[in-house]
Amino acid sequence: MLSLLKKLTAATPAPVPEQSAAPVADKVDPYMLGLYDATLSGWFNKETGELFTGFPVTADDILIDVGCGDGGNVQFCGNRGARIIIADIDEAKVEATRQRLADTPARSVECHVTDCNPLPIADGTATRVVSTEVIEHVEDPAQFLSELVRVGQSGALYLLSVPHPSSEDLQKGIASPDYFEKPNHIRIISEEQFKAMVSEAGLEIISHSQYGFYWSMWMLLFWEAKVDFSNPDHPLLHHWASTWQAVLDSPRGAQIKEALDGVVAKSQVIIARKP
């Protein structure tokens, strides 16, 4: 279940394609559509080299991804030529990400299987720190964030994300019961709580945004469809993907997406800096 939830809430539901383009097949691939939707929200900008808007990555950077999952985020960073350090509690995920990074021009790749308490990484190592959809799982968010801050250099940029409460509240009573149980989402984090957590850890918040209406609705329908995540073949999911594709293709699709992302978002994202 944890692997399923990490995939559903991750910024990259599928490997980043060479060119971001809206899927056009009759039967829309929900993951590729989700990836395209994410690029519209500011992820994976190859032209600017930003993993997310306001978070550029270059070959000069030392980037740590804590809770790397399947490695979609860090693959983008490896393709930028950065030195990469990954950490995750799941040994299989770390190995899969290591293999994924082997095909990138990353300067070097360092891997750690760890619960991050503490991180086996020296103080002031990174110029970039990424941790997406992790804080909602950990027992002690303050301790976890203190480790992230410790391993960053002065001036390091941080990209942090957690599920948005609008989407989490939508799942109540519909999601599988263990969705809100350890080791999955053991807390719902409000916008104000998220900002307070980051500020109290000693970071300066640069931006706070949200995105992911598409995935919020897909996830809701996934629970109702009662299918296996490895093969989510169900009319509800097919119809939703086709509908969202049609919305994005419409003349005001981007405007509609932005409006809906502001109402029910899958994730909230903070870009911050270590003083």
From TrEMBL:
InterPro entries: Methyltransf_11, SAM-dependent_MTases_sf. Coiled coil: none annotated. GO terms for molecular function: S-adenosylmethionine-dependent methyltransferase activity. Keywords: Methyltransferase, Transferase. The keyword NAD does not apply. Residues 64-158 form the Methyltransferase type domain. One of its GO terms (biological process) is methylation. This is Class I SAM-dependent methyltransferase.
